[in-house]
Write a structure and sequence with these properties.
single chain, 184 residues, mainly alpha, 6 helices, 76% helix, globular
C-alpha cells in the first residue's frame, strides 16, 4: 500500500474514532465544545498535513497556505454536504410514497440538487484558483488525487459502518442517504 493510501486509512481511522464516540463523550449539549473530540480532530489534521506535505513535496510555507485555504472553504463545503444529504433524504421519502409522491416537492428538490452541484463546482473552481497562487500544477493535480482517494475511502468506511448498523451489529439502524439504483 502506498504512503498516501496508508495516510488515507489513518484519516478514516481517526474520523471513525471521532464518529464512534458515545454522545456523552462528544459534548454535554449541542454547540458545546468537546475537548476529546477537538484533540482527535487536531491530531487528524496534523497527520493529514504531514502526509500531504510529504506526498506533494510541499514546503512549510505551502503547508500553511494550504491549511489556510482549506479553512477558508471548509464551512461552505460542510453546508453543501449537509444540503445534499437533506435533499437526498427528502427525495428518498418522496419516492417511498410511490404514486402519491408530491410532484411539486420532488421538482423543487431536484432543482435544489442542481443548485448544490453548481455550488460545489463553483467552490472547486474558487479553491483551485487560490491553490494556483502557491502550488504548482503538478502539486495541485496530486492534491486532487489525494482528496479523491481520501473521499473514496471515507465513503467506503461509511458504507461499511451502515452495513454493520443495518445488520443489527453496533446499534440501531440509521437513516440512509437517498440513492437511485437502476431497475433490471
Amino acid at each position: 500500500m502506498s504512503r498516501l493510501g496508508r495516510v488515507a486509512w489513518v484519516a478514516v481511522f481517526c474520523l471513525g474514532g471521532v464518529a464512534s464516540l458515545p454522545a456523552q463523550q462528544l459534548g454535554r449539549g449541542l454547540g458545546q465544545p468537546n475537548p476529546q473530540r477537538q484533540q482527535l480532530e487536531n491530531r487528524f489534521r496534523q497527520q493529514l498535513a504531514q502526509m500531504v506535505k510529504t506526498g506533494l513535496g510541499l514546503s512549510d510555507d505551502q503547508v500553511q497556505k494550504l491549511a489556510a485555504t482549506n479553512r477558508k472553504y471548509e464551512e461552505q463545503r460542510r453546508r453543501l454536504n449537509e444540503d445534499e444529504r437533506d435533499i437526498r433524504m427528502n427525495l428518498r421519502d418522496e419516492l417511498a410514497a410511490g404514486d402519491s409522491a408530491n410532484q411539486t416537492r420532488v421538482s423543487g428538490y431536484l432543482d435544489r440538487m442542481l443548485k448544490v452541484q453548481r455550488g460545489r463546482l463553483e467552490l472547486v473552481e474558487q479553491e483551485q484558483h487560490d491553490l494556483s497562487a502557491f502550488l504548482t500544477p503538478v502539486q495541485r493535480l496530486k492534491y486532487i488525487g489525494f482528496q479523491e482517494q481520501l473521499r473514496k475511502r471515507m465513503e467506503q468506511f461509511r458504507k461499511n459502518r451502515l452495513e454493520m448498523l443495518d445488520s443489527g451489529f453496533g446499534g440501531a439502524r440509521r437513516r440512509r442517504p437517498f440513492s437511485v439504483r437502476p431497475t433490471p
